[in-house]
């Protein structure tokens, strides 16, 4: 095999891992159980929102999801990756816009960034023509980008309810020596935000005022070693938000499932939840990507409120036409993609949906429901 192709394959996919077993992973649930008081969640401070800037192979990202009042879905994202420690580091800024009334007119912008840097105790990110700045009081993000001459971004995210992470620190750790783990995953959430601002796409201004979700996430190891599949739910209603991030590890870590999430209203967290499920009730084979595309789904959140009452949230949904199917390795030459798939079983695709939905929440004996919009992803990697 050509040496450069070997390098490309390793960079994109790496190699398959041995079977370490369940003793080589400690989930956020287990970390929570080991903590005093067994917290289901911990509220975030500004310090918790600092970029990790890991030295080993890792991917770190901040994502701003928007359910606009006008109807479209919007997203802004900065990704910082250490591809080869000490040799290659990359940064990327992404913008996406999808209008359900014009499904063929979706806009996707993804541009590499130059001179990435971190300031304000690593809570703010800068690069040429890009800034993602956390306010001094820790309650507002300002996101500005002119990195793509055809896709400008100027958005303000104001937190409406407390931010949180699952358990005591949000971490699921990997390694045969858990005192010195070789990898970790965590997610930190602002589940409910007020969004103000606009995108300028090919010279046309698009207002993106609405409600939003902010996530800061880290995969401090090769992504396909950390997880084989993902499910993500982001519901935004007039008063309530529900979020869930679920992943399943590859067999090397005992096909372990981890699902974190929470329910929030303006000004409060209803419940931060660890006992969550994302079910593909019905799926159909996608002949092009060769993955079982979900058609009917059910998301369930289970936890307790601050008074100790049982909390259950449910969304059941039959999907219409998908918003998008993303070939994650779309930029990789086909023959390298085939080599990577054969060597490590890596064939990542993301199925995305954006549709109206109903969230039902039961707190103790009281049940309520709210109509809203859900953005959801089902990701298949290996």
From TrEMBL:
Residues 59-219 form the Svf1-like N-terminal domain. InterPro entries: AttH-like_dom_sf, Ceramide-binding_SVF1, Svf1-like_C, Svf1-like_N. GO terms for cellular component: cytoplasm. The keyword Cytoplasm applies. Gene3D superfamilies: AttH-like domain. Residues 221-382 form the Svf1-like C-terminal domain. It holds the Pfam family Svf1_C. It is found in: Cytoplasm. Its main location: cytoplasm. Keywords: Cytoplasm. One of its GO terms (biological process) is response to oxidative stress. Belongs to the SVF1 family. This is Cell survival pathways protein. It comes from Orbilia brochopaga.
């Amino acid at each position: 095999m050509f040496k450069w192709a070997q390098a490309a394959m390793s960079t994109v996919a790496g190699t398959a891992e041995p079977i370490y077993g369940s003793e080589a992973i400690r989930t956020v649930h287990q970390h929570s159980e080991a903590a005093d008081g067994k917290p289901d969640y911990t509220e975030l401070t500004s310090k918790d929102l600092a970029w990790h800037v890991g030295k080993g192979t890792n991917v770190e990202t901040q994502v701003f999801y928007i359910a606009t009042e006008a109807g479209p879905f919007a997203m802004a994202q900065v990704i910082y990756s250490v591809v080869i420690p000490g040799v290659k580091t990359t940064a990327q800024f992404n913008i996406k816009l999808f209008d359900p009334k014009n499904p063929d007119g979706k806009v996707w912008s993804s541009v590499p960034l130059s001179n990435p840097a971190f300031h304000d105790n690593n809570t703010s990110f800068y690069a040429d023509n890009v800034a993602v700045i956390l306010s001094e009081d820790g309650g507002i993000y300002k996101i500005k980008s002119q990195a793509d001459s055809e896709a400008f971004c100027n958005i303000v995210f104001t937190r409406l309810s407390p931010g949180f992470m699952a358990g005591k620190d949000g971490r699921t750790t990997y390694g045969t020596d858990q005192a010195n783990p070789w990898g970790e995953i965590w997610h930190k959430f602002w589940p409910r935000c007020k969004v103000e601002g606009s995108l300028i796409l090919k010279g046309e201004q698009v207002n993106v005022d609405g409600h939003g979700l902010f996530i800061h996430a880290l995969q401090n190891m090769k992504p396909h070693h950390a997880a084989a599949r993902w499910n993500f739910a982001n519901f935004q209603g007039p008063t309530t938000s529900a979020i869930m991030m679920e992943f399943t590890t590859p067999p090397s870590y005992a096909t372990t499932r981890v699902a974190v999430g929470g329910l929030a209203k303006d000004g409060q967290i209803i419940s931060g939840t660890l006992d969550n499920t994302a079910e593909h009730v019905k799926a159909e084979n996608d002949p092009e990507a060769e993955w079982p595309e979900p058609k009917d789904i059910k998301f369930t959140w289970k936890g307790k409120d601050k008074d100790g009452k049982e909390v259950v949230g449910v969304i059941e949904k039959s999907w219409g036409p998908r918003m998008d199917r993303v070939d994650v390795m779309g930029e990789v030459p086909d023959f390298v993609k085939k080599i990577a798939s054969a060597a490590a079983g890596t064939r990542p695709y993301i199925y995305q949906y954006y549709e109206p939905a109903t969230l039902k929440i039961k707190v103790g004996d009281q049940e309520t429901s709210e109509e809203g919009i859900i953005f959801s992803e089902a990701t298949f990697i290996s």
